[in-house]
Design brief:
Layout (H helix, E strand, L loop, with lengths): L8 E4 L2 H12 L4 E3 L6 E5 L3 H11 L8 E3 L3 H5 L7 H10 L4 E6 L6 H4 L4 E5 L4 H10 L3 E2 L14 H8 L5 E4 L10 E5 L3 E5 L5 H8 L26 E6 L3 H6 L6 E5 L10 E6 L4 H14 L7 E5 L5 H10 L4 E3 L1
Parallel strand pairs: 1-8, 2-8, 4-6, 5-9, 11-14, 11-15, 12-13, 12-14
Antiparallel strand pairs: 2-3, 3-7, 4-7, 5-6, 9-10
Helix pairs in contact: 1-6
The protein binds threonylcarbamoyladenylate and magnesium ion.
Length: about 325
């Protein structure tokens, strides 16, 4: 076996699994860990070897910075430069949970984590085993989503294994992720902006900070990772926004699959039909989204029409990228 080959072991996400993960991380290895959002590919932030492996295993562009996962607010604050009261307000309200806060970094942050930026992305994940692993390490864990770059993120251990089998030594299996889309990323600059929508809404953040957020403008830095092709299965994905999906589908020619809301399923005629959730069930749609995107290529269909709702920003944002902007407006 050369250094790029591993027998990938899957262990339950429990105390003994956490101990094994911490040991491998200490040795400069990478391991996959469950979080409430998606599975992460973890390395200790003070192990250059591990950080390098993250980029190699995922085939991730080197200019895309990593989120530092901390076991609590006090660890996170050790990496921020002069954190103001906005960080503490957001941390009190949403940590541990699916919010990543981008702030000015200090010298404690290893350069290879931030890809040369003067900011750092900080998050305290909700999954207790993930936090146990961080506590055992005593330093933050850098962890992008545990997918190959451009593929949809994994929301269960089986999907991590499918994408990374033979490339990493260990996956901790903590079942299906409760949220199912990656964390909301909020940038605290002179103004506050949302760099990536997630389960924690813009409105919830505005309520806690008692200020309005701004839309990211061309002049403000966006999360570098958001500029790449993303979340894309190999098959063609097309979106439909509107109220007449079943009629729209009747007008579509050829062989295709459909991802629809539960209420409209009986009116859909297609080779394959997958339900993403009830029309108003934003959380359910979030939870199933990546499972569905990761499953599309296994069907014998080259083209998929997916019904989505622009109000559900986190779902819509990922689907827009998966479809590379191809949308029908009903
Ligand atoms: O829910 C999540 O956030 C998951 C779990 C594993 O915690 N992690 C995750 O990491 O989604 P990743 O690397 O797949 O996405 C992180 C995004 C990237 O688009 C990256 O460019 C952005 O965060 N990012 C990281 N550091 C940043 C910084 N200093 N400024 C702006 N964006 C940053
Ligand atoms: Mg990712």
């Amino acid at each position: 076996m050369n250094s790029h080959m591993h027998k990938t072991t899957v262990l339950p996400a429990d105390k003994s699994g956490a101990a094994r993960a911490a040991q491998l991380l200490d040795d400069g290895e990478v391991v996959a860990l469950p979080s409430e959002t998606v599975y992460g590919l973890a390395a200790r932030c003070d192990r250059e070897q591990g950080l390098e492996k993250i980029f190699k295993v995922k085939n991730r562009p080197a200019d895309n910075p990593l989120i530092l996962h901390c076991d609590g607010t006090s660890m996170a604050l050790r990496y921020a430069k002069n954190p103001d009261e906005r960080v503490k307000k957001l941390a009190d309200a949403f940590w541990p949970g699916p919010l990543t806060i981008v702030v000015k970094r200090n010298d404690n942050v290893p350069d290879s984590v931030t890809a040369g930026q003067d900011t750092v992305a900080l998050r305290v994940p909700k999954n207790e085993i993930f936090r146990d692993v961080i506590t055992l390490c005593g330093v933050p864990i850098a962890a992008p989503s545990a997918n190959i770059s451009t593929s949809p993120s994994p929301t269960d251990a089986g999907e991590v294994l499918r994408q990374l089998d033979g490339k990493i030594p260990l996956i901790l299996d903590g079942g299906s992720c409760a949220v199912g889309v990656e964390s909301t990323i909020v940038l605290l600059d002179e103004v506050v902006s949302i760099l990536r929508p997630g389960d924690i809404s813009r409105l919830a953040i505005e309520k806690v900070l008692r200020i309005n957020t701004v839309d990211k403008k061309k002049s403000t830095p966006i999360a570098p990772g958001m500029k790449y092709r993303h979340y894309a299965p190999k098959c063609e994905v097309l979106l439909y926004c509107g109220d007449n999906f079943a009629d729209f589908i009747k007008s579509c020619k050829g062989e295709f699959g459909v991802v629809c809301f539960e209420e409209e399923q009986e009116d859909i005629v297609a080779k394959e039909c997958i339900i993403i959730g009830r029309a108003n069930d934003e959380k359910g749609q979030q939870r199933r989204l990546f499972k569905i995107l990761n499953s599309l290529d296994a069907h014998d269909v080259d083209r998929w029409y997916i019904h989505t709702d622009k109000r559900f920003e986190a779902v819509y944002n990922r689907l827009f990228k998966a479809a590379q902007g191809k949308i029908f407006q009903g």
